Amino acid sequence: MLAHLIEFATNHYALVGTFAVLLVLLIVTELRKGGKSLSSRELTALVNADQGLVLDVRSNKDFAAGHIVDALNIPHEKLSSRMSELEKHKAKTIIVVDALGQHAGGVARDLQKVGFTAAKLGGGIATWRGDNLPVVK
User: Fold this and answer.
1) How does pLDDT run across 39-66, given as a tens digit for each residue?
2) Torsion of the alpha carbons at 60, 61, 64 and 66, rounded to the nearest 10
3) pLDDT at 34
4) Regions of the chain where pLDDT drops below 50
5) What end-to-end distance do the CA atoms of the chain give, in Å?
């Protein structure tokens, strides 16, 4: 199998090279799309310094099952209609948290478009729990 792959790559070096370049460009674009990705430690430091607000964009049910202390819950599908709730926090960095990181980047980007400073928790609440950090119900 590996021999066939190597043979294909040597016979079609232009095709393989083009694929590699496109793959790198895709990865770079995806990483830049949702703004800065924060670690659990960076999130904690921002919140403790009163410079950050945790915005949990999971469903109400998932939020109720466990969330970061003092997090504000606005499900991602309701964010546009509830954006006014964030206005009083405009001086802070809004740190977007979701389950695994699948929606946080898009939400952070949307917040940046309307003038907020926003970042996302890399890996979502799963990373937070994986780091054995506390959640409240």
Assistant:
1) 889 989 988 898 999 999 999 999 999 9
2) -110
3) 60
4) none
5) 51
Which runs of E-coded beta strand occur in 2-76?
A: 36-38, 52-56, 72-73
Q: How many domains does the chain have?
A: 2
User: Rounded CA gap, 128 and 41, in Å?
Assistant: 9
How does 48-73 read in b/e, with b if 16+ C-beta sit within 10 Å?
Answer: eeeebbbbbbbbeebbeeebbeebbb
Query: Does the residue 123 lie in any domain?
Result: yes
Together in a domain, 71 and 25: no
